[in-house]
Amino acid sequence: MKRFFIGALAFIGALSVLFVVGVVGLLMLASSSKPGVPSNMVLELDLQQPLPEHTLDTSFAGAFGDTPTSLRDVVEALEKAGTDSRVKALVVRVGQPGSASQVQELRDAVKAFRATGKRAVAYADGFGEAGNGTGAYYLASAFDTVYIQPSGDVGLTGLTVETPFARDAFAKFGVKAEYGKRAEYKNAVNSFTDEAYGPAQREATMAYGTSLFNQVVKGVAEGRKLSEDQVRALIDQGPFMGQKALDAKLVDGLRYRDEIHDELKKLAGDGARFLYVDKYLERAGRPHQTGSTIALIYGVGEVLRGKSQSNPLSGGQVMGADTVAAAFRKATEDPNVKAILFRVDSPGGSYSASDTVRRELQRAREAGKPVIVTMGTYAASGGYFVAMGADKIVAQPGTLTGSIGVYNGKFVTAELWAKLGVNFDTLDFGKNASYGSTDLEFTPEQRARFESELDAIYLDFTTRAAQARNMPLEQLQAVAKGRVWTGEDAKERGLVDALGGYATALALAKEAAKLEKDAPVRLQVFPRPKDTGEVLSELLGKSDADNSDDEAAGARAGVSPQLLEQVRAVYRVGAKLGLTSQGREGRMLYAPTPEVRW
What we know:
By secondary structure, the protein is α/β, with parallel strands linked by helices.
């Protein structure tokens, strides 16, 4: 009987190995027989949901399903298509295109595509449908032609910035927020210490919202060939139902999807086919695959110690300091790398983790590797800390950046537990053993130490930022104070160097590397993306790391987000209040972004 069980287990093990080998073999066979690119085509893109900035390669996403199309994928596909004679036009269904920075990155790519003489068409069943469709319409206005269905509308109504305040709710539950911040504009803690906007937060939020609003007005006016005053007047009159939107010159026609596709088929000519943008990129190949090597390093998500990983609750990512620092070391040590492009899309996080990344960026520059930062949706607080030492910083006009400041503290929950009939009796071994305890408020001595730490971190942040940006400390501190800025306003104050996205940053990287403007370059992601076999091996418990750099350059896989959507809904409420920072490390360089509804 014992031999039977041993044989059965061995048989099951052999079947498992054969299954894995078979799956990998089928994937390799499938990849070798991919269809080609049609000789006459119209590119098609569906933007019903925002595009992710970057997807970690620590799951089966690319093996057993489509890896989500990223923002960079679309930008590079349109760049490639602009010089591809097989591509005749682009059609995009616009829904929820994402943040202001993402919309501007897409607008830039569409305008560059159009500059090659090719037509770009945007359509929607409606922009908003009784809701706010300003962001979606802002993107659509960059296209040659904009259509909606006869039953659709254009919800061009402006934008709203919304911030929750929960101080009184905490008080009702018996929770006291003991927090401190540097300086008056560091608003991350206000959601649980205040009941409404204070003067400083109102001033900063108004300035931020006004800057974004003006960018939208300018973009729509240019795209639709209207004056800015006309656009402002239209916004105050919105929303517009179909015929009224047409009369106001906000759209070029009232058409259904089939009518739009028929029109584009005629434009493209005989035998024209439609092809999704991601499929085109997969089959035609990316641009920037030959020539001098420029490294691309992603710093996406909240900055924390350890490895980069997916956050299964938020659906986003964590910028692991170990992973990003190791990527910098790898790129620095590679003799083929002429410059480093660092894509930062982060609201900040841990002070020490941010400093780990900052140090490796500095070491790369000291080794002779120019570093150009390109900012995504946000690069604020710790997200600015990791970026500030670069040779050049590029941001979109709508990027949220700055927030040069710090906060820290704790929630004291003793009263809450007392209401529930629970009492914690504490024995301390060390005068400050209860320093971080949520059962006790700070003693006067502990509070003084706490405030001293905030002063030291703020001085360190502002001093390093002033040195990195080559400006007097007093000048830097005048635009710091924890205040957030749009990229456009940050450039005026010397916190960033140029406005734009990937294309602008890549041009600056070439210049810094002393390459010709039109020189071909190979854009190489660091750490090197893993292939299916490596991902499979790691999920089965095998590691190919030879040393700590190899180990740190990896990333941790997250739980399948599909299984956690209901939990995420609760998580997102907490995130609005700044309560759900993963790990909630102390001494936070963090800037919860204002929720902009547009």
